[in-house]
Amino acid sequence: MDAxxxxxxxxxxxxxxxxxVNLGIGIPTQVASYxxxxxxxxxxxxxxxxxxxxxxxxxxxHRLLTDAGGKPVTAxxxxxxxxxxxxxxxxxxxxxxxxxxxxxxxxxxGHLANWMIPGKMxxxxxxxxxxxxxxxxxxxxxxxxxxxxxxxxxxxSLPLTSARPVDLLVSELAVIAFPGGRATLMExxxxxxxxxxxxxxxxVLVVADEVREMAI
Amino acid sequence: xxxxxLADAVALIPDGASLMIGGFMAVGTPESIVDELVRQGKxxxxxxxxxxxxxxxxxGKLVRARLVKKAIVSHIGMNPETQQxxxxxxxxxxxxxxxxxxxxxxxxxxxxGGILTATGVGTVVEEGKQKVTVAGKDYLIEPALRADFALxxxxxxxxxxxxxxxxxxRNFNPVIAMAADIVIVAVDNVVPVGLIAPDHVVTPAxxxxxxxxxx
Lengths: 216, 215
Known about the structure:
Distance between the termini of chain A: 10 Å
Largest sheet of chain B: 9 strands, mixed
Strand content of chain A: 25-35%
CATH class of chain B: Alpha Beta
Oligomer: heterodimer
CATH class of chain A: Alpha Beta
CATH architecture of chain B: 3-Layer(aba) Sandwich
CATH topology of chain A: Glutaconate Coenzyme A-transferase
CATH superfamily of chain A: Glutaconate Coenzyme A-transferase
Radius of gyration of chain A: 17 Å
Largest interface: A-B, 41 and 48 residues
Structural class of chain A: alpha/beta
Order of helices and strands of chain B: EHEHEHEHEHEEEEEHEE
Order of helices and strands of chain A: HEHEEEHEEEHEEEEEEEHE
Number of strands of chain B: 12
Structural class of chain B: alpha/beta
Number of helices of chain A: 5
Strand content of chain B: 25-35%
C-alpha cells in the first residue's frame, strides 16, 4: 500500500453515518474512495454542492458541474446546490462535521500551515482558512516528511492557516491527536514501530499509554 | 431591465472600472462578456471574483490581455500568469479567504458595512485589520465590498429578467448581482415569463439592469 492510500484509508475510518464532510484537494480527495460499507456520508464541494459523486465517464460531464478544483464531477441522487455565501455559511457556521485538508506543516500544538511558502508558492488560501477555522472537526492528511525533513515540526515556520489547532493528523506512519494542545502519538501504521515514528518526527510527541496499529 | 447587444453592453464599462465577475475556476463565468472586454480592450480594471481561473480561460483571459490592474480574489494557484504579473509588480493582488470574500460581497449588497469573522484571526490575514471581541471570541472586522459592475452568468432568464442558475455554475453569481451599481447578465437560455416558477427564481428581475441579447 502506498503512503497516500494508507492515509486515505485510515481517515475514512473517521467517517460516521450522516456526516457532512468537506475534502480538500490532493490526498484528502482519495478518502471518498474508502467510505466504510453501510454508512452514508454527504460530501460538500465548496463551490456549491452537497452530494458530490464520482468523476463522470469520458464525454458525459456537464460544464456547470465541477468540484472545487474545477474538475468534472457528478451529483448523486439527493444532491443539492447553492451559492458561495451559503457554502461558506455551512463551513463557518459549524454545519460541516469534518474537513480533511492537506498540510505543509503541522506543529506540536496542532497548528496547521498549508497555504503558502513565502517567496516560492503564493497560490492564495482559497477556502482553507475558513475550513480550518470553522469545520467542527479538522483532520489533516499529510505525508510525514518531505525531502527527508519532518513536516511534523516543533513550531510552524510557514504562515499559519488558522490559529485554531487541528483535531487529528494522519500520515503514512502515524495517527497523531492533540488532546490538551499536545501532539500525542495514538497509532502507528502496520509494520512501523513507535521508535521509527519518533525518529522521523521533529515535534516532541507524547506517546499514548496504548499505541495501537492502524486498523486499515 | 433592458436588452442590449453584447458589444453595446460592454461599451457601458469604462476603463478603470471595478468589476465583480461570477465563476469558480471559470465555471459560471460569463465568457462572452469577458471575450468582449478583451476585444474592446478595457484597461486598468479592478476585478473581484473567486479566482483568476487558468491561463486564457475565464478571468484568465483578462489577465493574459494585461487588462487587470488589481485583483481581489481567494486563489491564483492555477494561473501562473497572474503570479508572474503579481511578482513583476504589474498587477496588484489582494488575497482574501474565500468565505470572507463572498461574505464581504454579500454585506455590500445587503446594506451592511462589513462583517465579523473568526477566519484569519492569528494569521497574516489579520495584519492591519481591526479586531473585536464579542462574547469572549475574537473576530476580524472585514469591510463590505461593492463594485461598479457585476458581470453575471445565469442558466436561465425570462423576458422580464428573473434568473435561475444551474448546478455549481451558481457560486458567486447571485451574490454579486446584489452588490454592484450596474448588473449585466449573460444567459444560456431565455424563456417566457412564468416558466421559471416564483419559488425557483434566485435573482429577482428588478436586480438585473441589462440582459445580453441572444445572438
